[in-house]
What we know:
This protein has helices spanning 29-45, 56-71, 84-92, 112-118, 140-146, 169-178, 198-201, 227-232, 246-252, 274-290, 292-312, 337-346, 368-382, and strands at residues 17-18, 78-81, 102-106, 126-130, 151-157, 183-186, 205-209, 221-225, 329-333, 349-350, 352-354, 357-361.
Amino acid sequence: MLRGIARDQFPILEKVRYYNTCSMGAMSLTNQLALQRFTEDWNDYAGFGWNKEHGWVEDVEHARKNFAKLVGAKLDNIAFSFGNSVATGSITSSFDFKTKNEVIFSDLDFPSTPANLMALEGRNVKYKVVKSEDGLTVSADDYKRLMTDKTQFISVCDVISNTGFRIDRQNIIELAHLQNIPIFLDSYQSVGSIQMDVKKLDVDFMASGCLKWILGGFGISFLYVRDDWIDKLNPSSIGWYGLDSPFEDLFDKLRDTLHRPTTAEKFQFGTPYPVGAILANSGMEMIMQHTVKKIEHYNTKLCSYLIDRCKDAELDLNTPIEENQRGHIINIKAKDASNVVKKLTELNYFLDMRAHGIRVSLHFYNNQQDVDQLIDEIVTTAI
Length: 383
Ligand SMILES: Cc1ncc(COP(=O)(O)O)c(C=O)c1O
């Protein structure tokens, strides 16, 4: 019996059936405390919140440390950012694209990174799109076929948000590295529920926000940059948190060159949101307390249970059934998916319609009963 982990920590589960972590993680009691602490800090200290005794600077630093731990990185390789779009922009602003002017992404990706890469057209950059033949999967070889000696950068979304397809990220990284091409991983739908070791993967860049599987809410995201790229790249799009000592650089000495940090902090923009950092810490610490290994194992089993129930109920899927080809999102085909989702929502099932199907995501607080009730409801009422 898959009973769910720490369900009593998530008050929303008493009111609704929640299957929408891939949109936003449920709020925990520790998230509530974090938000309350920020409300009190702001109310009591306002701008003095930045002073050491109130700890906002330390909260942001602590969030970088927590994220580093979560993905197997060193602190120096992590920058705080404001979203995956922003993180991609930091990296693309670092390349000159003069000799190598091609970039690659797939038509299954979440639009954050593709938008950035397509916008480079004005800088004479040619984008190439890996097209999924079945609308569900792409392979490492599909990327390989588009790689040339002009490829500067490849962006890969490791779990697809609409259907849950999980790509063989290690294979793509290895193939790209054979041709000295860097890979940017958009891991927004995997960090927190699928184990990640950036060093073992040898990935060049990786970004994730905290809204979803990390259970950390809005306001902060993170960018990992591998050591050699920190040395080689100087982003042209930064803010004062991307400088070594901004006030000296810009005001006291009016130096004519920027003094950039020797860490991934050189990819940062301006004032971080302490509320985002405080919330993210509460989420990341909860995830690490249960361990991503245990969470991944649990979520995978629960998704397999859902797939079995769909099979028995003769419901087809828009998600590969092989365990190593899926994250923790399952998309169930339905003829009139938007109407089905509307009916389910009226019955207090929180989920979304995507790719003409019913998108269900399961995190460690979901249980077998959630799955049973949903499938029974789809079969008896909704379809
Ligand atoms: C895979 C993936 N990447 C990126 C994002 C959002 O990125 P951004 O921070 O640019 O809004 C999402 C959000 O749904 C996502 O699912």
